[in-house]
Each structure stands twice: as C-alpha cells, then as structure tokens.
User: What shape does this take?
Amino acid sequence: MKKLISHQLVKYLEDRGVEHLFGLCGHTNIAVLTALEGSRVKFINTRHEQVAAHAADGYARASKKTSVVLSHLGPGLTNAATGVANAALDSIPMVVIAGDVPSHYYGKHPHQEVNLHADASQSEIYRPFVKRVWRVERPDLFPEILEKAFQLAETGRPGPVLVSVPMDIFSMEIDTALFERLKLHTKTLQKPSIDDETATRIVQALAAARTPLLYVGGGVVLADACAELAEFVDHMSIPVAHSLMGKGVLPDDHPFTLGMTGFWGTKFINDKCLNADVVFGLGTRFAEADCSSWEKEYTFSFGPSRLIHIDIDPSEIGRNYPVEIGAVADLKQALKVINRVAKRLHPQGRRNDALKAEIAANRDTFASGNLAAQQSDAYPLRPERILADVRAVLPRDAIITTDVGWNKNGVGQQFPIYTPGSVLTPGGFATMGFGAPAAIGAKLACPDRVVVALVGDGGFGQNPAVLATAVESDVPVVWVIMNNCAFGTIAGLQLAHYGTTTGTLFVKDGEPYSADFAAIARAYGAEGVRITSAAEFKPAFERAIASKRPFVIDVAMQNVPTPTAGHWNIMDIYSPGKKVHHADTGAVAAKKS
Assistant: This one.
C-alpha cells in the first residue's frame, strides 16, 4: 500500500512519541502541516524560526527527549540556524526537518534556492555545527534517513541533525512497508560504561588524594546521572565544583557543593580547584570562562594537580588539559560501576566534617556579603534584589531559563538551584535571545512545574513575538525582564577598558530608552506589569505565577557588574597587565548628572 510521505512522516513521529513540532510555515512544508491536522503531534506555531529552535531546545532539555523543528527553506533555515547552533554547542538532541527546492529544479535558481557555490546547497549552511546533514535525494530513502537522524541525535554526544527534504518528495507516495519495517529497529541503544578495573583505579586515586575534588558539567544532566553523582559524593565526602552548565547537578544547599568556577566564580571556589591534588572531571569540556582561560594560576593547574576525566565524547578528553585516567563512557552507567566499587573498597564510606564546616562557613560569608544588595529598596532595583525575590517565591523544582548577562552570570554565581536540570542556560554559544523562547519549550515539556524566564531587555527585545506563540498555545510562562536599558555586560566592559559606552546603551535624546514591554505583552494578549518601586516586584511576581497565564514583568534594574574574583583573558587583551574587569555604568551616569 502506498501513501503520501508527508502523512507517513507524521505517523512516524506519532509512533516515536513526539508530542510537539516547533516551526513556521512556508511553501515547502505545508504538505507536512496539512498532514498534522487531526494528529496527536501539536504544531507550535512561531513567528520566527529562531524562536522555534530555542523553544525546541528548551523542550529537549526539560523533557530529556529529542525535539523536532520543522523549517522552510532558505531564510527559514538560516533564521533557525542560531538556535540550532546553540543546541549543538550545548549537546541538545534535535532533529531539524527542512523543506527544500523541488528536486527537478536543482540549479535553475527556483524561488529562495541557496545555490551560489553549488546547486541546492542550503544544507551546507548547517555542516559546521550539526552532527550530520542529509539531503534526501530519493523518496524511498527518506524513512531510513529519518530513523538514522533520530538515532544519531540521541547517541554519543547528543546534538542536532538536519534532514533537508525537497518539497516535491513530501508530496510523493511510497510503500508504507518502508516505514513499517523501521518498527523492528530498537529506539534505544545500550550505552557504554567502564570496567571494574578502571573504576577501582579512579576510586583508589581519589581516596589516596589529600584534597580530591569533583568537577562536573552539563553532561551529568544530559546523562540523567545526577542521582548517581549524589550517591558517590555522599559516600565519599568529596567536594563538587561545577561549570556554568553544571549548575544544579548537585543541589546548591548540598553540604559538599562548592559552586561555579572560573571568571564568575569566587576566590574560595577557584582556590579549592587550584589546590586539589586530584580532580575528577565528569561531563565537562573545561570551557574557557569556567577555567579562567586555562591560565594555571587562577582555577586549575594540571602539572601539580592530576586529572581523571570521563566524557561521552572522546575529543573532549585531553583537549585542554593532560589526563592521567581517561574514559569514554555514559556517565550514568559509569557512575553506577564507580559507586559499586567505592562501596566495596570503602563499605563504611568516608567523612570529612572539617571540609563540610568550611564550605558552610564560606557559604554563610558569601550570602551575608550579598545581603545588603538583596534587601535594598533602591529603584531601579539592584539585580541581587530581583534574584533574591524570585528565589523566595519559587518552589524548589521551578524551572529557570536565562539569557546572557546578569541573568546568566549572576544566576550561576548566586542563585540557588535545588533540582537537577531545572536551570536552562545558553552555555557554549552564550546566545542572546535564548531564554525567552526556551521557557515556552520547557513549560510544554513540564506543564505542572512553574517556569520563569530571567532575561534582559536586550535579549527579550530581539524577539518579543515569542508572546504570540505563548498566547496562541496557552503556555503560562512568566518572563522577568531585568531592564537596564542596555546591553549591560558589554557596556560595563567597554566603559571599564575604553572609557565609553558607544553602541551598548539604549539612549534617546540623552536619556535611557526602553520600550514598555508590559504594554507590548498586553497588546499580544498576555498579562504585563511595569514595576515602579522595589516593593512592587515580589507581589507582582507572586501574582504572575498564580495567574497561570503568559505574564511579563518589566522591572528597571541598575547596570552594576556581576561581581567576580575570577579571570578571563579577554581582560588582558583589552587592558594588558591592569587587572580591570567591568565598570558600573549607572554610577558613572549618576556622577555626570
């Protein structure tokens, strides 16, 4: 029996358990959209393909499932590219299905064809950042390409793949048996682990160390290995530092959680890493900002320190630091073996009450240092006050999405996360514009959990049409816009090093300029409130959560820099030898007036 490929594609997605398809229409994909009518798969209609890709990214992170994006050709695919690249650099599984020019018009330059260097070459645009690109050349090959696409996206180091489909192929018929035979193939591959011998070497090295330390990244969350990690930490009493992407892998109130390292880390945390004699890296690529540009006097110094590293991607092992014991493995499977071996070698476990007390004391000192800013009644609000009020209202398992700037760096440094996988942030690509649409995907994945986007006015202003999707699809996300009328972090950098803020502040006629985002929200059919005093914010936030509607809170914020005792080499590029970081643009403006 033969049926249209578009209809069989939708049936395949249903059978695979796909619940949402993120995208935007175009003449190359309406055959698929038509086939969705009456389907269990819900199309999440966006007004920009970057919104679709970021929402799909947030959905995959929160659901721990592969997300699917449907794109039009040419400008549709390039619009989505930033969101897909963001997912790629954070190892998020995603299948992008894109319409392409009709196969019989290759090279004739039909409408919107990308062909300046090769005919029908739109798929080449994605090659630098996706795991694999397929351009479907024959209709009978489409089913097996689709199966391979999902399998590759989900296995090894997860990531996006692209399937570029000429629009005429969507409208062709093929034998249903070609899709039916795929049901015989497993949808879950067994993942690699480590042997007892390797696990024994790891446990013995950590137990013999004077100052062992675990350094964890987002790979622990992707592997769903947080419970196994906590089990090992509790048994062996080893402190845990984390990268930005590793935030929340272990709850921030766990007695052995140190915190985030690197440029936005504190001196206490960086010193603990620097002075560790054995570091056990788990699911981390030892990225630049997390490792103080890999300069050995700030966060890690491998030479005196010894490194053990487990990652699913062999290219990450030894990329930036020499490794004494390296293993390619799924972290959940590997930690199961390591826990079993640790309990055999140390059946009573190990205690380190002195370290636990030291961590608790430092945590108290750090918290007390932020207390004045967190309780400040100043308006515009201190960013610490915004974060503290948000945390005070949220349940422990609320999902937070961030953008870039204070809402990312400050959250990583000083916003407690208690549930693994509940903070979604753009790590590898650090994409402005991620947080607002990612929250929509997260809420669709976890409808019973509170989802809040902490975003700047620069990031939210890139694509406020995200509100149309939220209203249309009834997605009750709360967006807190930390509005400093600036690309604030960059403004602070520029002022500190070059004495100007050209191109970084939003100004009209010499005064700070901002759209009224609350009014924009109401225009889209969402709720919107503009905060006019510090006392207003917390009650407004409580009301926003209780409303169970899409809700924007526009809150004016001082553009003060995220405090840091860390190091990033870009500072030395700007101002060699001066140890200058960021400047407070608000303080300078006040002085001028």
Summary: The CA atoms of residues 92 and 159 lie 5 Å apart.
